[in-house]
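Cross-posting from the modeling subforum.

Setting up a comparison between two proteins and wanted a second pair of eyes on the formatting. Protein 1 (sequence, then structure tokens):
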Amino acid sequence: MGSSMDEKVVAVIMVGGPTKGTRFRPLSLNIPKPLFPIAGQPMVHHPISACKRIPNLAQIYLVGFYEEREFALYVSAISNELKVPVRYLREDKPHGSAGGLYHFRNLIMEDDPSHIFLLNCDVCCSFPLPEMLEAHRKYGGIGTLLVIKVSPESASQFGELVADPVTNELLHYTEKPETFVSDRINCGVYVFTPDIFTAIREVSSQTKDTATLRRVSSVEALQPATRNSTDFVRLDQDILSPLAGKKQLYTYETKDFWEQIKSPGMSLRCSELYLSQFRLTSPQVLASGDGTKSAIVIGDVFIHPSAKVHPTAKIGPNVSISANARVGPGVRLISCIILDDVEIMENAVVTNAIVGWKSSIGRWSRVQACSSLKSLTFKCFCLVSLNNHEPGSILCRSQAEGVYNSKLGVTILGDSVAVEDEVVVISSIVLPNKTLNVSVQDEIIL
């Protein structure tokens, strides 16, 4: 093999598909989750931009099972912008994180890369990819994982791992353990040599051999077909765990930020992290203003060039305003994402909220989250069905997964929601095409 100066590198970003991401509703109802804008750019744009910094990058692949047409325009635009070929590869069905990589192995290896980066689209971090590659070349082995230290209380939500403090070899890996193992977790960012395909093939072969030797139980027969198929291979349980402690995998620990983007509420937090990073890496994309010719801007704020913001508005910190939005006089925006074609009329206030495409917020209205979150453990939430201006029927139910965003203290307005004048919306989720003419709090508007 040639020197590292001659070696090519490719990157694969897993974007998932429409059968997942239900926690991201209602914002994913009319746009694929990977294309939802965070800090003014589609979610997938951030890992793609990070890949641009990898030396000798030959190609970026997006792997998922969305329809190709949903990514066609974006893939074309980002390829031209970054001057790096970006290609979308559609799975015929979910193959698992490792199985999806293996399924397209021939295409991925077309450029004969020495290393393959594998990233998850719904990860928010600084993506220290060149540093990982340099560390991996020193370590050797099949692959290197990006890891981070978290609180012991939150570690069990992720893949916990134990690494040698001197050599950084991965010694033990377990996915979401029931008992505490380690405060180091897997960040979902990897660099591998092509030997990873051999490891995946061996797992797939073992699964196939086992399947032929035993009869399928009645319980297994009821499971989704993809989970029982021999080409469904999970990277964490099927690859990382068996290879741990065999001098094949190593870790690279980041001291920077890291989050998962599993819900709309987390996207607002991640928008804040990326905007803060822009201050160091791309300060030119951040807005500024002192209230004379442009609005008063506080902290890290992104405003699309096509947006119209009145000079008497006060924006920030942590605000992202998308294309063709209109922000009227006296408006106050704090910690929010304003999507395309939104209109916010005079003296309205939006804080800790995401306002969906083509929505409108009336004069003197407020869209916000509770300033101090109440205990939601035993609280009932209302499911309110509104038919434009007609009163809705109210059904109460106990707390369930659907109120996840309310627990984060974020109000979500879906596509084309109209909040009329002097209406207050607090810690609620509103599905698309609704009109609110009465104030609501802690409700899901169906």
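Protein 2 (same layout):
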Amino acid sequence: MAENSPLLKGRSTSSESKINDSKLYLAVFSAILGNFSFGYSLVYPSPVLPQLQTPDVDPRLRMGKEQTAWFGSIYTLGAAAGGLGAMLLNDLIGRKLSIMTSAVPSTIGYLLMGGASDFWMLLLGRFLTGVAGGMTAGSIPVYISEISHKRVRGAMGTCPQITAVTGTLSLYALGLVLRWRWLAVVGGVPALLMVVLLVFMPSSPRRLIKLGREQEAEKALRWLRGEHYDTQVEINDIEHSINTQAKVTWSQLATPVYYRPILIAVVMRFLQQMTGITPILVFMEPIFAKSKVSLPARYDAAIVGAFRLFAVAVAASLMDRAGRKALLYTSSLLMILSSLTLTIISHTTPCPPGTAPPGTAPLTLTISHDAIGSALDASQQTSAGLIPLISTMVFIFGYALGWGPITWLLMSEVLPLVTRGVASGLCVAVSWLTAFALMQAFSHLVEDHSLFVPYLCFTVMCVFCLLFTAVCVPETRGRSLEEIENYFRTGGTFTITRSPSTEQM
């Protein structure tokens, strides 16, 4: 594979040096507020479930085992439906309007949860916020990749993950001081702010050119790149990419130029979920409570959330330096080591204090020996209680370093332009259907076999993540979207060759 092939031949970078990214950053910020809401709503059950499982809660809202499983997992069904909706809306009304539309189910969902008087209202609210999350997950990465230039696309591509993590951390932090109804009220604010800001942002230049609206595309590019940027070079590249593609038929989808990038994106979203990240994030407080971590579970969740945000920030700084594959390798290895540690810890069940194994006589100790033994036991329990927390932090760090943000970024990079809207929705739908099945299975596996079996499965899947990266994932750092498409079209080269007549245009 010619991954080190030169970039576009004969192209001057003088116009790139005149790019002003300030308005691009504003457009990206406006869009990723939807990801903030997505991260917030995804882990909403973590601090809420303990509040709704107490004896003094309204019996119509109190949750047992089955209600807990559905309250946690129904979000993923909504996200799958939202992903399918994005699959249609991305090409029907455009990326920007698809993102703005997600505010409708988000707002209704939070209103239902905030004013819930029965369990069905909580479920419907969770489902609708999941629909909004699926729509943003299928539209925002595509919008960002199409308004960004290749010099900053890697960093911009991590922004959805950064804001999603920030939303998660905000929920964990607010859960320390707010009751569950107020958490729902706060959750509706970011989506409304997103709509207000996106009204003033441009549509995707690539979509505008595809629709034959070149003047609007030129105006959008000039707004995004600055007044001194030569938009004609980028417009020519986009037009060349569009002109080399006809409308895809079902038979053409069987050719490598289409099925390879789509398959890579779909499998990466499947493997991303199979690492276990969603059940770990959604049920974090109950998991820590079951793991007997020495700190209160709600504080552990906030600590892990803050550490996750730090990891994503590190990934953003390295994305365009270390490259996508190097970060994916590192991410896989860290997740393998940490999930293996959690598997071993969860399989080792210490004898409860004050009891002896069956068939053995209780030990008779002097008072001084009892005191020494109690002190040693307390010290060992404190140290052992930190291991699940540290291992979870390493797992989250590894995920956030690679398989979290890069999966989103690569989805928007490798998908062919002509199928990008539909295929991105398909990726999101596959991802969340996988998450739903996994979360349902997780709840029952933990109930029947403790945490050992789920953690063992997650370890195996992390090994598959490492192998898939080595065999199937191309390095896209520093490549334009048109060069990446050319890689799959030619079977291994990023260089775009033009006919003399095309170069003279």
